[in-house]
Specification:
The chain is mostly helical. Helix content is about 75%, strand content about 5%. Helix 5 packs across helix 6. The longest helix is centred in the middle third of the chain and has 101 residues. The model has no long low-confidence stretch (mean pLDDT about 75). Keywords: Membrane, Transmembrane, Transmembrane helix.
Length: about 240
């Protein structure tokens, strides 16, 4: 069976061999002083050689350290320059963004003003046409509600009044009418194809607001604001026969 030498056995063997060599060396050379002189000289030479090697190693180590420190300083300077350039770029981007936002805001303000002006003009022209269509002045009186609504319904060149009344009639049966439902009606009020969809919604909104106010004065339909839209209720005056 093969024996395996353990680590501690190897240590014991080295200690024993070293001790035996020291004993044999001492026995053979302890009476010869030249041996000890040679050993002392050899130790001095070895010490000198090791000192020279240590000096050379220290010199190259310091040179390498200086080179590394210089590289670190250069890298630090480069990082500082890059950081400065990044800050300049960020400031430029921020100023450009602010200028762009200001320019867009000015443009959209101008567009919004143009849309508002066109919307008001369209509504004003439409009501002027209503007045011209009638040979006599229209006086809003709840007693004459059928005649007034009938005249409005016959004016169908720009606004679909009858469909709007039908939708409001449906809304009056609901507990609440959402803003989206009202906007859908506003978009479909205008039948003037000369207007784009955005202007149709704005014009329809203006007409719808004026129209429900007229209906409220005529006591045909009343409305009240709610959290999510409007609440329409039927008034005392019935117009079902006009919607047939």
């Amino acid at each position: 069976m093969k024996q395996i030498i353990q680590k501690k056995d190897l240590v014991y063997l080295i200690i024993f061999t070293s001790t035996l060599n020291i004993l044999l060396f001492t026995k053979d050379f302890y009476q010869n002083p030249k041996i000890f002189e040679a050993m002392g000289f050899l130790s001095s030479v070895v010490s000198i050689i090791l000192s020279i090697l240590a000096i050379i190693y220290t010199f190259f180590q310091n040179f390498h350290s200086s080179s590394t420190i210089e590289q670190i300083n250069n890298s630090s300077k480069n990082l500082t320059d890059i950081s400065f350039k990044i800050n300049e770029t960020m400031n430029f981007v921020q100023k450009a963004s602010e200028n762009l936002n200001l320019e867009l805001e000015n443009k959209f303000s101008g567009v919004k003003k143009d849309i508002d002006d066109v919307t008001r003009k369209a509504i004003s022209d439409s009501f002027k046409d209503i007045i011209k269509y009638n040979s006599e002045d229209m006086v809003v009186n709840s007693k004459d509600y059928k005649n007034i609504i009938s005249k409005l319904m016959h004016f169908s060149e720009k606004f679909n009044v009858k469909n709007t009344l039908i939708e409001i009639e449906k809304f009056s049966n609901n507990a609440e009418t959402s803003i989206d439902e009202i906007e859908a009606v506003m978009s479909n009020i205008v039948v003037d194809n000369a207007l784009v969809d955005t202007l149709k919604l704005g014009t329809g909104m203006g007409f719808f607001i004026c129209f429900i106010e007229i209906l409220s004065i005529l006591d045909v339909f009343n409305y009240a604001k709610t959290d999510n839209g409007l609440k329409f209720t039927k008034g005392k005056n019935n117009i079902k026969d006009l919607l047939k």
